[in-house]
Design brief:
heterodimer, A: 495 residues, alpha+beta, Arc Repressor Mutant, subunit A, 3 domains, 3-stranded antiparallel β-sheet, 15 helices, B: 495 residues, 11-stranded mixed β-sheet, 16 helices
């Protein structure tokens, strides 16, 4: 692949729905999927005379998030009205934060998807609280001009996180969002369900093109409707090519065309222009006189930051570091485990502290535990083989009490028959240690029965040893494959 | 003495003593409304059955010993701007014609809890924007003292029903003088309490940082008793004050000796001030001096900017507050083909609904506010307005460092003729000259009658006190009333 003659520049705006029980300015529930217009009250309906009252829990969650993103938390923040007309915005304005966001500048480090073990940093401009709008459903399929509005979502608390344009590739943008989602999940501030709209991303994209020794910038395009990580990557790749083609055709640079908004059409795999908002988006922000400014005391910050104003502990980046440096895992393996969420990390930590070897725990978690969870759709918290039990099994393998494959038999036995003492499982599965003499006899028997394989091995083709191991297991399931291989090789060489 | 000539407290006393039932009193006023309302058009919605039902409830609750307010069982008129569940609440606007809110304003709920009996809704300028009750969709209200004249506004109906003896008490709302000015024009007392003293929840918003519910009555004791019912913190209104509610009647009898009264020079020497009103203020000075108060001259140097400031702040907030009336969810809707400038049938519907549903004055103020908040004008208008508002508030603070209460006029003139100013909005705005300061500064302010002028029209003076000093304000006014400065008086030109 030749190097592209341009650099892609991406900034993201991420809307995170905070996991509060009630809405940002009223006590209506926020459960997803309730029948339309059943989670509403005079306040979120914007009825005449109704007034907003701030949900403190949303503020706490915003501050927790801000601290984890290394943001400066504003000692005083306020609420502003963002005015625009839309049927799913019943007040005719959205309560948001304009010039004093609750969270000021910060940053997020995340694993570089293109260089293993390296990390990238994206600076964050701000994160502010605002209320969500309702949902418009346009029933165009029915051939009627029939729109319906569901206001259940109206007033749901959102944290809008705005990044600097620090991202330089679509995979990096995806990796940033992946890390952000993981972090938010660890913080417990959002369920981050993209399908349900709990995490929504918009991207501001343009290109920096090198031309005759100078760098020029193409007009910025805001890409909306990115409702999966895959969509983010695809849309950005598409938009990069589209902007380059457009530039080749028009030569338009930033400032020569207004900022455009395009929506990602996932089915068609293209971005399409969206209706321009009212000329230059004059939202006429002004302080909401129905709400009072919010003072955030230093003590409150301390308690939310879990002591001493320190950043929150036990978050993905720190856990990865711990798994790599304290437990010697490779960055890839540490990332797989941390990405599974706090429960899996704790499972790993418990198994290791119960005496199992970290690398073996890591490999078993990745191969056996996670696969089983995937197949059964279960969660680590209710996984039948507890960390201590797994540790006991892995230690037995470590000491040679049973081999790896018999270990897997025990694991399967536990999953199907219920967890028991290791000795019980071993007895049930007929697992017993085989002495060397017995095993040697078995190997001789095998060599006699497989002269072709013996011939191959003597010619230097060791592949055939595998089939001998299989045959040995059939004759005696307790035969240690490693030992069988060793003995067979020795015996052939001695022939 | 007929019931309508009694004070609200006297009616309450008789009800409590069993001399008369709430039902009988209510029936009496309903009968007077039936006979007298047509001439003044002050009530716009009356539901006799409901009122009688509520009166019977009050009688029952009184008999059961459940009611303790001295106003239990006393009827009260409610301005058409306060929400009552299931009762038409239209703010004098076509936009809300037929709208019956599904919830009750906190202020009204407090009246109901105290066992008071709503008689109906009183007429007002559309969305409280005006000073003459001429912009209501229900037509003009007339001043009981002279049917050719305005009762003032925006709470014109609230004041007129008292002067005509159609109700013993009434509540209105005051954003720039809308309780005090009609009280002055109709010869009754009207209080605008400290901003935040009475909950705004359920008060249809005009300008949220200025709006305040206030009682109107014939005596200061009635005002104090009604304020006692209305005042207090409301968790549903973030701007409502948490300060404890004092016993307003307790301080009324205290002598004024040693009290310092400041006469506002910029008000009494204003060129637009009617001579008879200036004399009324002087008479007030003399009487207060006679009661032992010390009279000094004070300055509110930014008085000349108060109307301009008010007409930037209030319309700006109103432009946002009235955005919710878009024809989508409730209220008036006008569909039609997309006109010029409308991007879609939806925009056309919103635009037409607002063009037809709002009256001229409301549209004028929405446009004024929209302009003041627009990008490029915000600093010069809205922001400048906020800065001058601060200076005006500082004027009050400085004045109250020198004196305990302020004395001055309420209005430049007595009640003007219907139609006299309705074609000249600026002339109408200038009538607010002496009242808007209290709203901009958030201080309590009271209009009290001061006899009649040579044409037989009511005169009035205004008293103002520092934030939360309603007890002092009411004490001064009560002492003046007791000393004969004014007396309860119904207009002759009634039934």
């Amino acid at each position: 692949m030749t190097t592209a003659p341009y650099k892609i520049v991406i900034g993201l705006e991420v809307h995170v729905q905070l996991s509060t029980e009630s809405k940002l300015f009223c006590s209506c529930e926020t459960t997803f999927g309730a029948p339309p217009n059943t989670q509403i009250c005079p306040v979120c309906l914007g009825l005449p005379g109704a007034l907003p009252v701030l949900n403190r829990r949303a503020v706490e969650l915003a501050i927790r998030t801000g601290l984890a993103l290394h943001c400066e938390i504003a000692p005083e923040t306020k609420w502003d009205r963002k005015n625009y007309f839309y049927p799913d915005l019943p007040k005719g304005y959205q309560i948001s934060q304009f010039d004093q966001p609750i969270c000021g500048p910060g940053y997020l480090d995340f694993p570089d998807p293109e260089r293993d073990g390296e990390s990238l940093r994206v600076r964050l401009i701000r994160a502010h609280l605002e209320e969500d709008a309702g949902k418009s459903m346009h029933d165009e399929a029915a051939g009627r001009a029939d729109s319906r509005i569901d206001l259940n979502r109206t007033g749901t608390p959102l944290l809008e996180i705005v990044s600097e344009p620090d991202l330089r590739s679509a995979p990096a943008a995806k990796a940033f969002l992946t890390e952000l989602r993981l972090l938010l999940t660890y913080l417990g501030v959002s369920d981050c369900n993209m399908q349900e709209g709990s995490l929504r991303a918009d991207a501001n994209v343009n290109l920096h093109i090198d031309k005759e020794g100078r760098t020029l910038a193409t007009p910025i395009v805001e890409v909306k409707n990115l409702n999966s990580f895959r969509a983010v990557e695809r849309a950005l790749n598409y938009e990069t090519q589209r902007q380059y083609d457009a530039w080749l055709k028009t030569g338009q640079e930033m400032g020569q065309a207004p900022k455009q908004t395009r929506g990602w059409d996932d089915a068609a795999g293209v971005t399409v222009p969206q209706r321009e908002k009212e000329e230059s988006s004059d939202y006429r922000y002004f302080p909401d006189p129905d709400l009072v400014p919010l003072h955030i005391a230093a003590e409150q910050l301390q308690s939310l930051g879990q002591g001493g104003g320190q950043r929150l502990e036990g978050l993905p980046a720190a856990l990865r570091r711990e798994l790599e440096t304290e437990h010697g895992l490779k960055p890839y393996d540490a990332d797989v485990i941390v990405s599974q969420g706090r429960g899996v990390v704790e499972y790993f930590q418990s198994a290791v502290s119960a005496g199992a070897v970290a690398k073996r725990v890591s490999s078993w978690i990745q191969q056996d535990v996670l696969r089983t969870l995937n197949e059964t759709g279960g969660s680590i918290e209710t996984f039948p083989v507890g960390a201590a039990r797994l540790a006991e099994l892995l230690q037995a393998i470590e000491t040679g009490e049973l081999d790896n494959s018999r270990g897997k038999d025990v694991f399967q036995y536990w999953l199907t028959q219920g967890v028991s003492e290791l000795s019980v499982a071993k007895t049930a599965l007929g697992i017993a240690s085989v002495d060397r003499g017995e095993l040697e006899a078995l190997c001789r028997e095998l060599l006699d029965e497989n002269p072709k394989v013996v011939e191959q091995v003597r010619e230097g083709n060791l592949k055939g040893l595998g089939s001998l191991i299989g045959a040995a297991k059939k004759k005696n399931p307790n035969a240690d494959p490693k030992l069988v291989r060793e003995l067979c090789q020795q015996l052939i060489e001695a022939l | 003495m007929s019931i309508e000539q009694l004070t609200a407290l006297e009616i309450g006393r008789r009800i409590a003593a069993g001399e008369v039932s709430s039902r009988e009193v209510t029936a009496h006023f309903l009968q007077r409304i039936e006979g007298g309302n047509a001439r003044i058009n002050a009530f716009v919605h009356v539901d006799p059955e409901r009122s009688l039902q509520l009166a019977e409830d009050a009688d029952r609750r009184l008999a059961a010993g459940e009611l303790t307010s001295p106003l239990a069982g006393v009827p009260i008129a409610i301005k058409d701007i306060l929400c009552e569940e299931g009762v038409p609440t239209s703010c004098g606007s076509r936009m809300l014609e037929g709208f019956a809110p599904p919830y009750t304003a906190t202020a009204v709920q407090r009246l109901l809890d105290a066992g008071m009996v709503p008689l109906g809704k009183t007429n007002m300028d559309e969305f409280a924007m005006g000073g003459s009750t001429e912009t209501s969709v229900y037509g003009v209200s007339r001043n009981p003292w002279d049917l050719e004249r305005t009762p003032g506004g925006s709470s014109g109906g609230a004041a007129a029903v008292l002067a005509a003896g159609l109700a013993p008490l009434s509540i209105g709302s005051d954003t720039g003088g809308s309780v005090r000015q009609p009280a002055a024009f109709c010869g009754v007392c009207g209080l605008k309490p400290t901003y935040g003293r009475i909950s705004r929840y359920g008060l249809v918003a005009f300008a949220s940082s200025l709006d305040q519910v206030g009682p109107l009555a014939h005596t200061i004791e009635d005002i104090a008793a009604c304020l006692q019912v209305l005042a207090g913190h409301d968790p549903r209104d973030s701007t409502s004050l948490a300060a404890e509610v004092p016993q307003y009647a307790a301080q009324l009898g205290r002598p004024l000796k040693g009290l310092k009264v400041g006469v506002i020079r910029e008000h009494v020497e204003h060129a637009a001030l009617d001579g008879a009103i200036r004399l009324a203020v002087e008479r007030g000075q003399q009487q207060l001096a006679g009661l032992g108060a010390q009279i000094v001259e004070v300055h509110l140097p930014h008085t000349q900017y108060s109307v301009a400031t008010y007409y930037l702040v209030a319309p700006s907030e109103a432009s946002g507050n009235l955005s919710r009336y878009d024809g989508v969810h409730y209220g008036f809707r006008q569909v039609g083909s997309a006109g010029a400038g409308a991007a879609s049938p939806l925009d056309a519907m919103i635009s037409r609904s607002r063009s037809v549903g709002f009256g001229e004055e409301v549209k004028r103020r929405i446009m004024l506010g929209t302009f003041a908040l627009s990008s490029g004008y915000y600093d010069a208008y809205y922001k400048k307005g906020q800065q001058v508002r601060r200076l005006i508030a500082n004027d009050y603070q400085t004045a109250f460092e020198q004196v305990d209460v302020l004395l001055g006029p309420v209005t430049p003139t007595t009640a003007f003729k219907l139609g006299e100013k309705s074609s000249d909005p600026v002339q109408m705005y200038l009538c607010d000259l002496f009242t808007v300061g209290a709203n901009l500064a958030g201080v309590p302010s009271l209009s009290i009658p001061a006899g009649l002028d040579e044409k037989g029209l009511p005169l009035a003076v205004q008293l103002q006190a520092p934030v939360l000093e309603e007890p002092r304000l009411l004490q001064v006014a009560h002492q003046m009333q007791r000393a004969g400065f004014f007396e309860q008086k119904l207009a002759n030109d009634t039934l």
